[in-house]
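Follow-up to my post from last week.
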Amino acid sequence: MTQTIEPAVSGASGASSAPTYGNFIGGEWQPSVSGATFASLNPADTRDVVGYFQASSAADVAMAVRAAELALPAWRATPAPRRGEVMYAFAALLAQHKERLARAMTREMGKVLSEARGDVQEGIDIAYLMAGEGRRLFGDTTPSELPDKWAMSIREPIGVAGIITPWNFPIAIPCWKLMPALVAGNTVVFKPASDTPHCAALLVELLHQAGFPPGTVNMVTGGGDEVGTALVESPDVPVVSFTGNGHTGRRIAGIAARRLKRLALELGGKNGIVVMDDADLDLAVDGILWSAFGTTGQRCTAASRVIVHEKVADDLLDRLEPRSRALRIGPGLAQDTEVGPLINVRAVEKVAGYVEEGRRDARIVTGGGAPSRLGLEHGHFFEPTIFDGVDPMDRLAQDEIFGPVLSVIRVPGYAEAVTALNQTRYGLSSSIFTRDNNTAFRAMRDFETGIVYVNAGTIGAETHLPFGGRKGSGNGHREAGHAALDTFTEWKSIYVDYSGRLQRAQIDNQPG
Ligand code: UN1
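User reply:
Got it. Predicted complex:
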């Protein structure tokens, strides 16, 4: 079978002539060993084929890992400030191409255009932040306990990093992982989600243009079972970073544990917003709508629970219901759209399943099905849906649904709110709306999540602070901020003795 492999930047014209994209290995676009491909479809109108991508296998992963290994000695020997300069060039290119990438993103995964722009901006932000790390990458110098002896610690790259990313932030999350990995001197094999390979191809093309040398960044597209597993299993990939669902994360953790790999997992959440009886309710409604239905609820940080003081619960719902009902559902590229489609048909089935179950346990306030508006029948649309009277232990309030479904839980006071908020397997993001400073500070202390917001929703983390969660939301690592460097570096402690004699620590300097 012959294939024309497009350079990633020139493709993506129209549905009838959807281009085929290659893997990116050793600085070249190339077909997979088998030549098999899969299609990426526009979730707002599945008749629109974005492109065809390589359905790769373990053989392709092996080639990419080899290319990354070959590029490693020169890249790690490149001074970190110089690695940072390449990253500055990439950040500037990403900024220059922001609109084009945002439009491609909305077409491929559905989020509304303003949010797609935000997604690319998040990539730009982390690229600039990490480019600066090229001139920091701080270690410690510290006094030795012995005279005439020097002690310091430095960060070193680990080697070839395996990076496996989700479709919901198809530029931002790959950048969260690629930037710290690369500035620290690792080389990378990147496996993007199969729902967003076009965004990944555009990103990799810009990395190449910015001047990352051939082999430093390699991309292999294809299924998790074939490509993801091969990458995690590879003995030549000592560090893996994965964002996705908990089931896959646990499987990866099993393999990584057996092979003693460094592994950073980001596995979602069941994030709650607490609304106290002294809250600014209009502000709370704004925060709830944005957090629950922004990105159609498809964020790890999305709010899927509102835990409201019973004194203001009716008032809150009276304000929330009409605003939710009025949200404009449609294709993300249409100017007035506020809620785009879900990613694929499996997502619609999953959300619909939870809604059906929810109808038995709780009262549906609004939404609950596919919108009836004409023109949306070829997309994966679902209405913003609110349930009231949900028990904190109901499946609606426990499982990560990853769609526009919000459960309202009524509580008699702060103590019960904290219990309900923390009563989940997850611990990523949380928020509280209150006008009382004391309550706000108690929440900052009591909420068992990696991220806490006061008088704001649960979404909107900034790239220079650590991002990640407790409990089932991950395995203790953090992305973004300088904490991200901990995933991709090994510490090396160095002692230099310039006394000219043998000095024994813990012995020669002790009295007696
Ligand atoms: C995610 O959904 O995995 O805080 C990432 C936010 C965004 C990142 C979300 N800045 O919602």
